Amino acid sequence: MFKVLTLNKISPSGLEHFNRKTYTYGSELENPDAIMVRSASMHDMDFADNTLAIARAGAGVNNIPIDKCSEKGIVVFNTPGANANAVKELVMCALFLTSRKIIPAIDFCKTLKGEGEEVGKLVEKGKSAFAGPEIHGKKLGVIGLGAIGILVANCAKSLGMEVYGYDPFLSVDAAWNLSRSIKHASSLQDIFSNCDYISVHVPLNSETKDLINAASIASMKDGIRILNFSRGELVNSEDVLEALSTGKVAAYATDFPTDDLIGASGVIAIPHLGASTPESEDNCARMAVFELIDYLENGSIRNSVNLPDVELLRTTACRVCVIHKNIPNTLNQITSPFTNANINIDNMVNRSKKDYAYTILDTEGDIDNSIIETIRGINGVLRVRVIK
């Protein structure tokens, strides 16, 4: 029986896929085999020795101690693309909101309550203060062409915008989904100097923190409108506020409000609603559950942030899964005990991702426990699991 700890409310649309004969799940379980989480912080958690995996029902994993998990041989999954459409729709909403001054206009209308028959005249008199440009024919720069960035780019193109896309790490699968009419930007400067709107869709790391700052803003067109629905720290809020005060930036929309941004002129601060749709929560939960099931039952890894994706069709009765450091000669050391015991390895796959690697070996018949203990004793081996 596998025990799955849920740290947040997880959609029943996902949990219902756990076979209750082999799985139990809940928020009060001890020593879980796996953990499902959304936004709860796990940085101060102590993990049981038998905890094999963590599945984040969402894309961002800042709430999970990735390095700590990797050292303990815990696979961390996320659900890329499951909430992409929800975020895309909010980004498109923000695109219009930054252009047409709709929110200030609505606030203005509220001040007219009680004016009776004068409302019509006051509306006509005051509406000129809220004029804004159409997006049709304008240039949108999309930085990061992952699941969300591609949807934003394609949607904006369908609305008549001229779209520039920049992503030096664009995958083949992503490229297939990108409209051929999207212009390829060879550098960030292509985006900064050409576009009327910029939407940021990259992960947060040491290289992307403050990607939008005083220097990059200075190279943008006057009156630029910036959208950030990826991570708050990608944009230096102090620099954006300064640029808003001078008119260099016409508007800034973000899904990550901070105290200095809330109420600032030209800022549209949304309370992290990007993935807050029932459809998105269902999609993320289902994907996370399927990732856990496939790993717990078959050893397959898909959409892991700390280990390589590895899948191998089951052809034998016994499967040995080894998580280890990406150290030279480790694979030979893992296979040697089988060779010494005259046990044939019917099928095998090994993949690495930065400092870590994962090996699956399929054999017929039972494996003597001494072989498993020998593998566990190899320098750099973090976890060994036998699946029958």
Describe this structure in words.
There is one protein chain. The chain has 388 residues and is of the alpha/beta class. It folds into three domains: 1-83 and 276-306, NAD(P)-binding Rossmann-like Domain (Rossmann fold, 3-Layer(aba) Sandwich), CATH 3.40.50.720; 85-93 and 133-269, NAD(P)-binding Rossmann-like Domain (Rossmann fold), CATH 3.40.50.720; 312-388, Alpha-Beta Plaits (2-Layer Sandwich). The protein contains 13 helices and 16 strands. It has helices at residues 12-15, 66-71, 84-100, 102-110, 119-126, 147-158, 172-177, 188-194, 214-218, 237-246, 278-298, 330-340, 369-376, and strands at 2-6, 23-26, 34-37, 53-56, 75-77, 139-143, 162-166, 183-184, 197-200, 224-228, 249-254, 267-269, 318-325, 347-353, 356-363, 381-387. The protein has a seven-stranded parallel β-sheet with strand order 8-7-6-9-10-11-12, with helices on both faces. The chain has a five-stranded parallel β-sheet with strand order 2-1-3-4-5. A four-stranded antiparallel β-sheet has the order 14-15-13-16, with helices on one face. The longest helix is centred in the last third of the chain and has 21 residues, at 278-298. It is elongated, with a radius of gyration of 26 Å.
